[in-house]
Amino acid sequence: MLCYPFLAAAGVNQYAHGAGLVSGYLLLVAVSVCYLGIVVAAMRSAWRVHWWLVALMTVLVLLLAPLAHENVLILAAVIVPCAAARVGARTAAVLVVLGAAVCVVVPMTVPGWSTGGSWYYAVAVVFTTLLVLAFSRTATANQQLREARAEVARLASEAERNRIARDLHDLLGHSLTAITVKSALARKLDPAAARAEMESVEQLARQALSDVRAAVSGYQDVTLAGELARSRELLRAAGVAADLPTACDVVPAQRRELFGWVVREGVTNVVRHARAGRCTVELTASTVEVSDDGVGGPVGAGSGLDGLRARVSDVGGVLTAGPAGPRGWLLRVEVAA
């Protein structure tokens, strides 16, 4: 939007002279600085500063009006989007209508102002505001997604620590107790019986070591059950109703890791792109489906589906992804039985 002050500068150059010309250029520089300050304030969520800068920029534009005449109205395409980005949809619509109306009506009522560019200025206000709103909503959604994923990662990490502690307790509790009892018993027996007991202790120790390795490797694996749990948390954090299976016993063990990747990719795309109210995951022995009731749309090039499609292809499966009528999106993977 920094191109708009340059367009307004044409009016200053045409209508102002001498000191007025210098003042006009200085005011345009100040307007540009205010806009940059608004961008920085928005990035830092300093909304009080944001509104003060919007107000200051409006005052500067009003001071510039006698020097740039009708050309100053192009700066409404800077003020209106900056204000509309921080209000609700209804208020933003009112601001857009008012901004466009000012661009059309004011040149008709001020003597000496040309009406030739009025509709151009009005269109600039409308389309610039729509562009800024779309960018703002996307940035907000991405920020919320990052926060939700960070929260899910924290919860998942905590849950995994608790799982490992529980698994180690369950896996090792019996083994270590048996080792302790058998070791104490071996001290009281004759050498032949004690040797047999110590061989049993050795077997228990090896089993305990194998159990620990299994618990640690499970911590790093992608599992269908784990992805369903993480997806439920992610959808909850994103405000999307989750219709997910509570168990995955119907899926053969050799397919659960692949189906876990499918659930991860599908649910992430629902949260990031779909603007959905509900997400559904359905499992059978040979298929997994992730669907939503969002906006749908074509398959994007270079998406994360490419990597998933390669995983599915490696096991001879088929991946289908696309809009699901009348609205929504469907991701389906089928693996031959």
From TrEMBL:
CDD domains: HATPase_UhpB-NarQ-NarX-like
Bilayer-spanning residue ranges: 20-42, 49-66, 72-89, 94-113, 119-136
Entry's Gene Ontology molecular function annotations: phosphorelay sensor kinase activity; protein dimerization activity
Domain Signal transduction histidine kinase subgroup 3 dimerisation and phosphoacceptor stretches: 160-222
Alphabetical keyword list: Coiled coil, Kinase, Membrane, Transferase, Transmembrane, Transmembrane helix, Two-component regulatory system
Regions annotated as coiled coil: 138-165
Keyword check for Flavoprotein: no
GO CC terms: membrane
Protein name: Sensor histidine kinase
